[in-house]
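Morning!

As promised:
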Amino acid sequence: MRPAGRGEHDSLYFTYPRFDPPPADAPRGSEAPVVIVGAGPVGMTAALTLAAEGVRSLLIERKGTFNDGSRAICVSRSSFHILDRLGAVAPFVENAYGWTTGRTFYRGRQILEFHMPDSADERFRPMYNLEQQFIEQYLWEAVARSPLIETRWQTEVTGLDADAGGVTLALSDPAGPYNLRADWVLAADGARSTIRGLRGLRLKGTSFEGRYVIADVRMQHDYPTIRRALFDPASRPGGTVLIHRQPRDIWRIDYQLAEGESAEDATREEVVRASVAAVLQDIGHAGDWDLEWWSVYSANTLALDDYRDGRIFYIGDSAHIVPIFGVRGLNNGLADAHNIGWKLGRVIKGSAAEALLDSYSPERRGATLDVFANAAKSTRFMTPPGRGWALMRDAALSLALTEGWAGQLANPRQMAPYTYADSPAVVPGDDGPVHAARIGAMLPDAALDPGAGGGFLSARLGPGFTLISLGTAVEGAHPDLTVVTLAPGSRAAQRLGLEGSGALLVRPDLHIGARWRDAPAPDAVSAAIEGILTGEGR
Amino acid sequence: MADIEDIYEALAMQIDRLDPEAGALFLAKAALALAHALDDPDRALSVIALAARPDPARA
């Protein structure tokens, strides 16, 4: 919602582009083997991942512009690595605000300051803030550059017929309806997924009671990019408030509605203005401010039982809805898109077996369930669902005023990439001495010694699989393999837990697919890659 | 040296000083702080389970 007198896309800081539907006389057929429904951040990331694999896709989008308002604003380090792999990260690095620190206050007094892991070994910061419109714009710029992606705006899915060989989509644009056949469909059409509805599938899980108004305001406010959480502030007695800084003097304010407060009333403009003004008073902002946009939100942990439905894959919010606390919605959506993208690309290109696709749901649904476990804890702390939860939360906050250990109970458990430990697309073995670099984990980045050319390990990885080795190079072991050799005892080797002549195999999505204590023979490396590509790594 | 009777009396007197709502908060804080001081989460959970058992006299 926007203030009276301003249209749906009348932003204080962003000019929404207008995308036309396909010309009426343009052919409506497509040679693309993949149709992606939904051109939001997740759909565009899927298209870019397929393009990186050399696979054409057709993006279908119901709207004629980007999503209204700034919804997701926190982009994690792991997402930056995905964007880097897709050649799209530069404008994000240039424009987003990186941050590492969060502060939590109880009745105006700080009870916790947490720092997310960061060091000179990391190419990207643990978290960045950027308005969703710019997330979509930067992705769109990359999509528009790709000759392998066709986008049809103002095109709606009205029906579908799926069979063993593909999916026939009934589409409609301003020129009229038509049918389109696709080998594969990626449903990136959001929380209210049309595809999911047409297939008769339902999200299952828990809906939490607490509701929040999220509001973006523009103001010149002198506070660094530090996430602030206010418990029981003067502006929301008994409630919680979150404050994030975004670029262009835009600030995100989330505040909890009181029990019995109606969402309808709370989202009236004058009520939002009064509520925001009270929060700004809490944080000592006395200057001018403009209201940009607001919405209402309630926390849910909902997911499909299976993210694969024959030749349809659900990615992002069509597959799962997670609470905002911990900033996992967008970031898990991007990881979904990247995960299915590299697998489907290789299957279509014929270098992987179709069975590899069966690893998508266990890997990404596993990540969702892990998110649920963490996000549900954060949500119960932010919005206690009952008398006991509220009492214990208040007890922890009260203790935290004087006891530092109690403040840790208010830690929001920020997004961390999931480890695919039990996936059929990793090769089980010795996990090595470093937990963060165990099999299935996302590869930790590392600064390389100047003698090794400097820079970061993540920038040396190949487009497909990469063997990071301390021993004899095994060039030519597999056509999809790049080899990176590290010096034994180097800082990078230590971060990866590589000792002696050890090696590890990195999948195209940066997750560790196999490890060896001793230098592997070329046949062993090739067998590991083939095991992953056939979904029979285990 | 303090013993369990001293703990018993200290809790009783503190609860008496508070209204019922504040008493509940005090007990929750005391339980959390005691569990932290115990530094043995499994033992703390077993103590909580012990305290949660139904009172046979009220069954």
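The two ends of chain A are 50 Å apart (CA to CA).

Hope this helps with the figure draft.
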